[in-house]
Amino acid sequence: MQSYEDRILRVVDHIHDNPTGDLSLDALADVAAMSRFHWHRIYQAMTGETLAQTVRRMRLHRAACWLVQRDWPIAEVAKRAGYPNLQSFTRTFGEAYGMSPGAFRQRGELRSPLQQPDRGDYPVHPVDIAEVPPRRLAAVPHKGAYMEIGKAFEKVGNIFTARELWPHARGMVGVYHDDVTAVPEAELNSHAGVVVEDGFEMPDVLEDLRLAPGRTAVMHYKGPYAGLRAAYDYLYGVWLPKSGEVPGDAPPFEVYLNSPMDTPPEELLTDVCVPLK
């Protein structure tokens, strides 16, 4: 089991790190060091999706983030995401997101209100104050840009699938330890985790991470993950100052209420949680 798990994680790393490379079935079979006649069947059986679906999902997610968080021309985004030309990227992106890359970039609710003070149509998301329970996470650490944490989520998800641990899962959570405005992007620290029960026997390849209970501001966000940066700016720059609340001494975290593997980007639900004093 460990050997197959290692092969899957190696392939996921390769897909993430080489979006413009050869990601054909034969090439990925070589990365896995397994016969091309069997590798794809093994991958699909162990992960629940085909290699082509994984490649497409990871490429489009990174492209969506780049469209919102970078000022690269759309043709450059397409090239960096591994598409041979702008036309194929536009067609594939439109099929997944229901709009062109240009429309996605221009859409108001994905913009930071702190960067667009003259628009008057700031993205507003409902926020509640709740007493959240303690959470124990089986986690994989990630260092670098937060929009790249998908690589760590792929790893923890594949470990749970390969070891048949999903019956112990109680949800997916991302923890973001550093402030993107104060720490260089390459030095940002975060964790991708699966919520598990207290009695769960933690595999040695995962970190045991605990989130404390307490009063928490919970912002209910709906939409593609690429829009979360603007949602954070609303929470910290608009809601918190108006509320009179003060953040506590613990990092923000995101609770993912559904999965991009079987949910359209527009229907993704995320609770953005900020511990309060």
TrEMBL record:
Domain HTH araC/xylS-type span(s) in chain numbering: 9-107
Keyword DNA-binding attributed: yes
SUPFAM superfamilies reported for this sequence: Homeodomain-like, Probable bacterial effector-binding domain
Top-level taxon of the source organism: Bacteria
GO molecular function, one term: DNA-binding transcription factor activity
InterPro entries cross-referenced by the UniProt entry: AraC_E-bd, GyrI-like, Homeodomain-like_sf, HTH_AraC, Reg_factor_effector_dom_sf, SmbC-like, Tscrpt_reg_AraC-type_HTH
Pfam families: GyrI-like, HTH_18
Keywords: DNA-binding, Transcription, Transcription regulation
Matches recorded under PROSITE patterns: HTH_ARAC_FAMILY_2
The protein, known as: AraC family transcriptional regulator
Organism classification: Bacteria, Pseudomonadati, Pseudomonadota, Alphaproteobacteria, Rhodobacterales
